[in-house]
Amino acid sequence: MTQQGHGLGVRCEGVVHLYKTFGGHDVVALRGVDLVIRPGERVAFLGPSGSGKSTLLALLGGIQRPSAGRIFLDDEEISRMGERYLARIRSRQVSTMLQGATRNLLPYATARQNIAFARLSLSNAERRDAILDTELLDRVGLLDQADQVVSTMSGGQRQRLALACAVSTAPRLLLADEPTSQLSHEDRDHVLHLIHSLGDDFGTTILVVTHQPEVAATFPRSVTMKGGRVGSEGHGGSEFAVVGEDGVLHLPGHIAAEWAPGTLVRFEEDDHGRLVVSRADAEVHS
Ligand SMILES: Nc1ncnc2c1ncn2[C@@H]1O[C@H](COP(=O)(O)OP(=O)(O)OP(=O)(O)O)[C@@H](O)[C@H]1O
Ligand SMILES: [Mg+2]
Asked: At what angle do helices 155-167 and 111-118 cross, to 10 degrees?
């Protein structure tokens, strides 16, 4: 891998993920995700509940392996990597903050001890260069809770501490699953500031899952998941549909609401050579 301090590039090729259930039938969480994220890019992931956002993040963080397809961080394929090497990448290069802050923390340790634990795998030199834990706690508004045990903290405090732990190693890729869902507006803004300052200071690649449009609006690119695929993308305020496997295209939400399944659609060029998409069922059935 390239030197510490540069963001990692991410590439997914036809990523599929199935969960096996006790009932014997499989749940298909991802149905073929193709995605390229450049080093240092900051992307917000949106989409309805169950669309596969958390599954995708866990796969990118090397916490689960895809059932099919390939995932690359820079030029290394983590989907086929040996467990020991993958564990090294997870502890040194990639920080994943899972959905539900408590899953990321040691409940009977203090805030400061949790940060120290997150940094265990760093070398002495890396630890010397890292943000001081006092400053980190200050930036998430937890200076007064530095020596408080996690199990006595509120949900919002745990969420802020989980993020502080995730950024404490200055990772090359930060994956944060709903890091602001339980926060007040003020705390949300502090957390967002900390996330973006990681990108500004270290060039970290940052992927954040959120249901909050105002959080997504702080990211230059958004990816909206739909039914286990990438449904659409937003760049600089404009929304684009994304062509999937076999030419499948998700309609933008407001059109999908009006065009029921089975609606006939015509693609034709206008006089200026521009492609026009129109509803044709009325003329066909009249
Ligand atoms: N451990 C699991 N076992 C079985 N099915 C699972 C498991 N985890 C997720 N799923 C299923 O996989 C699909 C995608 O779930 P995922 O958690 O990735 O969605 P999500 O977009 O993060 O949703 P939310 O916005 O509610 O967090 C859903 O149908 C979900 O029920
Ligand atoms: Mg989720």
From this structure: 30
